[in-house]
Specification:
Helices cover 30% and strands 23% of the residues. It is an alpha/beta fold. The protein is elongated, with a radius of gyration of 29 Å.
Length: 524
């Protein structure tokens, strides 16, 4: 398949194909020391005959045979519009400044023409795609640069967001590069990743009802801080104030003995603040049940009990939060949960937390707790001059906590400043337009699958890392599993076909049950 250039400008190249063309197809023109890569962004028909006469000719043609669309010999010609993507020359990749001469031949790229795009080893986004044709070369990028710079995966429902995330996690398990924490609300990530050949050394999983090889998901209420509730539970200013007061360090015994009314109100319980609140001790200490502070504490206690499921029987495996003093002897208290997660992430493992039996608020709370602890740990290490291993947290349905109306939370902070502490965010969403632009600007790799909404396509184009002003039509026509990757690592938008995770499992998986006693840490 070849095309001949006959016109255009700095933004578009016009060329006539020898046969038909498809939207999104890639073409190259080879230079002495490299090549120029172009992509079909549109096509049209031009003719030396007026359109009215063409319509009449078509209508009166009894044989109903179509016009032969070719460079010459026909009154109608098919013209392809191509966008110059990148120029590779002298071992360097840079924007296209080359002026293509009239008559320049454009040809379909070979594998050697595209080798400069991908690394030999890295996080795998799938096969590079030319229109519908899947090319035998994978788009692999530096995982540390990609993950620490944050990733956005956006698409309409059913276009392959979950499959893409699974394949990315699968490829990260091929070699230790980045530690990732992912919530598993549908119990699908563990089922897939546990079949990876490296699952025994690269996968850590926690579940309320653990399978062989998983740790039991139990979290102590003493690990919860008031700032973990931000963006998860809707609290009034008075309730936020009471939570902060309760979390203060406990007063000394001497101060308690001669406590004034003001001292009683401001008395703190430290890490036992939730236990004191839920048990009623913190409210009873105020003396007056109808005081504004008592009402705020009672309401806060009711909200926390609901989110933490503290009134649910633990034997049902519903609630995962535990008050240490109420835990039976021999049962897990969950006090080591955060340490186990941080250690696994520090060892560049994939950590899966099963939240399939939890409420949405409980899932967000656990995610906020882990994200906050991960960020603070990295901040502390950087202050001490220690080396930081790259890490990331996965956030599905991102607008829940990354919208204009969201209260400040750990995910927002990671998106804005996590990069300097080697903490990345992998955000998955159907809706881009509700995410603040300053957050979108910090997501330095964006993967767009099919989008039906014009509003979302415009948001995708406006926030891409490279010029995608001509790709609106391609975005709406992307089939399931087809995507466009735009990244600061690449410098231009690359069309890909994401491999099905089922194919990856069939090609390289094996049963690999890890030797872990449910509830305790993995062996070193």
């Amino acid at each position: 398949m070849t095309l001949r250039v006959y016109g255009g400008d700095a933004e578009e190249v016009l060329a006539v194909p020898s046969t038909g063309v498809r939207l999104g197809e890639l073409y190259v023109t080879r230079l002495p020391r490299g090549c120029v890569l172009l992509k079909v962004i549109g096509y049209e028909y031009v003719s030396s005959v007026h359109e009215q006469f063409l319509a009449e000719m078509s209508k009166e043609d009894l044989r109903a045979t179509p016009f032969r669309l070719s460079y010459s010999g026909s009154p109608t010609t098919l013209v392809a519009r191509l966008k110059p993507l990148v120029q590779w020359e002298g071992g360097r990749m840079h924007p296209v400044r080359e002026c293509l001469a009239i008559g320049t031949e454009l040809v379909s790229p070979s594998t050697s023409d595209l080798e400069f795009i991908s690394k030999k080893e890295g996080i795998d986004f799938g096969n590079i795609r030319s229109g519908y044709q899947v090319l035998p070369i994978h788009l692999k990028l530096d995982p540390e640069k990609v993950i620490s710079g944050h990733v956005l995966i956006a698409a309409t429902t059913g276009r392959g967001k979950s499959n893409l995330l699974k394949t990315l996690l699968w490829s990260l398990m091929n070699f230790p590069a980045v530690g990732v924490v992912v919530m598993d609300p549908h119990r699908e990530y563990f089922e897939i990743l546990s079949r990876h050949p490296n699952s025994s050394s690269m996968l850590v999983s926690f579940s309320p009802k653990p399978s062989p090889g998983e740790g039991k998901l139990v979290i102590s209420t003493e690990l919860i801080r008031p700032n973990h509730l931000s963006g998860v539970i809707n609290l009034t200013e008075a309730q936020e104030r009471e939570a902060d007061l309760l979390y203060r360090q406990p007063n000394s015994a001497g101060e308690d003995a001669e406590a004034s009314a003001e001292t009683v109100i401001s008395r703190g319980y430290g890490k036992k603040w939730i236990e004191a609140l839920v048990s009623g001790e913190a409210t009873e200490a105020l003396g007056k049940e109808d005081s504004p502070a008592a009402i705020s504490r009672y309401t806060l206690s009711r909200k926390l009990s609901r989110v933490l499921s503290l009134d649910q029987g633990s034997s049902e495996g519903y609630g995962v939060f535990r008050i240490p003093s109420s835990t039976s002897r021999g049962d897990l208290t969950g006090e080591h949960f955060m340490r186990l997660v941080l250690e696994a992430v520090g060892e560049k493992k994939i950590v899966v937390i099963d939240t399939s039996t939890l409420s949405e608020e409980a899932e967000l709370l656990i995610g906020n707790m882990v994200s906050t602890s991960l960020l603070y740990e990295r901040m502390s290490k950087k202050q001490r001059g220690e080396k930081l291993t790259p890490a990331a947290v996965v956030l599905e349905e991102a607008p829940r906590v990354l919208s204009y109306d969201s209260a400040p939370n750990a995910y927002m902070r990671i998106a804005r400043e996590g990069r300097k502490f080697s903490v990345g965010l992998i955000a998955v969403t159907q809706i881009i337009s509700v995410i603040p632009e300053d957050i979108l600007a910090n997501l330095n790799t964006k993967v767009y699958l099919g989008m039906a909404s014009g509003k979302e396509r415009r948001a995708a184009v406006d926030n891409a890392l490279s010029d995608m002003s001509s790709e609106d039509e391609e975005l709406v026509r992307l089939d399931a599993g087809e995507a466009i990757v735009t990244s600061s690592v690449l410098g231009f938008a690359v069309p890909v076909k994401v491999q099905l995770v089922d194919e990856l499992m069939a090609a390289g998986s094996k049963e690999n049950i890890r030797a872990l006693f449910p509830g305790e840490r993995l062996p070193e």
